[in-house]
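G.,

No rush on this.
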Amino acid sequence: MKPGRVSREEWKWLAAWSLVFLLLTGLPYLLGAYLETPESAFSGFFVAVEDGNTYLAVMRQGAAGRWAFTIPFTPEPHAPGYVFIVYLLLGKMARTLGLSLPLTMHLAKLVTTPLLLASVYRFGAHFTAWRFVRRLSFFLVAAGGGLGWLWVLAGQPFAPGVMPTDLWVPDASTFLTMLTFPHLAIAQSLILWVAVYGLQLLRRPDWRRALLIGVLGLLLSLVHPYSLPVVLGLLGLCWLQQAWRARRIAWKPLVQLAAAGALAAPYLIYSVVLFWYNPVFRSWQDQNRIWSPPAIHYLLGFGLLCPLALVGLLCRRPLRRWSDYALPALWVVLIPVGLYVPSNLQRRFLDGYQAPLTLVAVAGLLAVLHYVRRGWRHRCVPYFGRRSRVILPLRGNSHLPGRNRCNRVVLVVGTVSMLSNVLLLIGFTLLVAGRPPAVFNPRAELDAMDWLAAHSPPDSVVLAAYDTGNLLPTRALVRSFVGHGPQSVNADAKQSLVRAFYGDAMTDGERVRLLETYRVAYVFYGPAERVLGGFSPANLPGLRRVYADDVVQIFQVAGGGAP
């Protein structure tokens, strides 16, 4: 079999494992749905709940018929933008099918997860025909992590930003991607396909393939615009490397690659303009600080892949039959530099990175097995050149010396790499079983929000506590005073105002001026608001109670929302 070819048997094997990963990553969600009660409802998320509510809020706008997104977590009026296209479309799909928004999102994962796994396998297949290497790379990407499990067992802090990346960064972990949101799987799949078709274009220029790359690149930019320059830039470097090795410049593939980039670029340009000139979107970009943690968290997060990848970069001789090895090698070397360039989006450079890193690490593992013991070499494996052979656990090789030792080495590497994800899956399942707040929401609060959905004008501003404001736009087409760190303009200042409003730090006159300044239409008063202080909106002039039960009260502001 040639590199790049995937047999029907392999696709069947991949489909079976895709089903296994769907079941594993869906287990905590199924448990959450099972544990719902008449008093509390499963939010649909157990990790990154705040971001999950953001995507549901976008779907809510799509279900209302909108094609452009208005930020629902800030009261400032602004022109909408064409972002979050995937979730706007999912919202429209939910309305058409009559399904709930969380259910529609999770049904989308039934498509995006197999798509991601197929992309990972096809990416590895481009570089080697050796089926064992393809499958090992696939497992280490799909189920592998780093040494985060050691961090947990050592009792170190378990919180985003202060622990190894395999425990909290979906961009760096395919397993976490499958556990979280469908757009992440779409973006990483498109990155890998653009890379594969781009390499094919560099070897065999073809305008139809250039068109395909342009279309895939445009789709990628609709999901993660910042990933498009990264993958196209890597392909450009591969073109330079090929020109240097051939001692001649091949203009045709470069022209076609540039044409594909031009076709994919319009939405990227639109995004740059939108986030630069729209002040509310600009504020979102400025507050969206996706900075890299200390390097040690990356090294622990990728675990054994790091030293093995270093071997794979340095010991190239046994792997000279691998096709287009320069791309994953460049990818592995350059992305760590990008992780610390001055930018709010440092961690986003990890999109798709696990696949090339794993491939180079597997190459390093093979090189180690080749050089460490002479008994592991044999001519039965024709993928390392005529003078360099290595034995690995292939069918029919049980009589060859060193096979069991080789099996043990591969088994240890695989087991150590998968422990973090096993621990995460167990931990998330136990978390859901405990039915904590935010993961499970009181139905009384949801009923009050549904009342707002039925009775409030679209885009009405609602004053509420931060957690309430994060959930409100998922249930009603309203805008929260504050509810999301990056998307709420001056989020920290607004949280202070909310605490002062419900607490004792404001006079009634200051409260009235606050409502007038931000054109607040409704004041929400539930458990989260009561915790902030002893003030009751019922005592504020100009407020009229329009909804009440044993848990929540909603007050309408006289003249609220009027320009």
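When you get to it, here's the other one too:
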Amino acid sequence: MTDKTTCQYANIDSLETGMLALTIRRARATVKAEFAAADPPTFAAFLAAENKRYLAANDTEIIRQAHATDPALMVRLENYRREKMTDAECTEYSIETMLADIQTNIFIRSHFRKDPTRQSLHENSQIAWLLRHRYSDLVKLPAGKGGTYFYEGRLTTVHPRPISIAEGARGTGCLPTKTLDIWSEAAQMYGILKYSTTAGGAQDNQYNDVKHFIREAVRYCEEVPDSREQFIMWLDGPYYTEKKYETLRVMVPEAFKERILVQAVADVVQ
């Protein structure tokens, strides 16, 4: 004979599972409704739609994690309580309450789910847009072993990349670039992808990386005259003003302006 208490807990588990499924179904229905519209006509609209898609997927995932008391989520919540809450608040707002609220409270859930900008949202969206509207054979190149980069006037995939030396810092050309991001065989196009928001240390470093890419692309075109590859710096986001675009473009000699380009994915239209 089945124990009555066991039946009660079984019913509770079933109810909780049903509530979880309902919450997830509602989240997915919201996403489908938002994406039922026509394909976004601009990259900005596409990026905004992709951001919502990432958020919806992250929403579903954190609901699942909270229901399953996922160990990684538990660590995050414990760290949050230790670093952001007083002892009195921790006593009043238990870890169990936090898990329950994540599953039922949209505002609380949005605070703890993953941030799309930390999931390569911008780079993935740039690639997706170029695939749709410019290069049907576009591929993402390896960033580590097997990655392609400039070094001493050549394109190479030697791994590991040479260690930076003092002469490179003084602009003598001994400093290898970071790896190139994308490649189209049909167009013979290598590209780098950058999306930067407001000015700051990290964004300024990326801007300097682009300058280094341009200098090395020019050197490559000069030293390998039979080469035919095109190199495009795909730069998006409010950080890249017209003044910055122009500063970068004037670095390219007239002879190579058809091969080394500075432009935005946002300028590629359907």
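The radius of gyration is 25 Å. Residues 181 and 228 are 18 Å apart (CA to CA).

Enjoy the weekend,
O.
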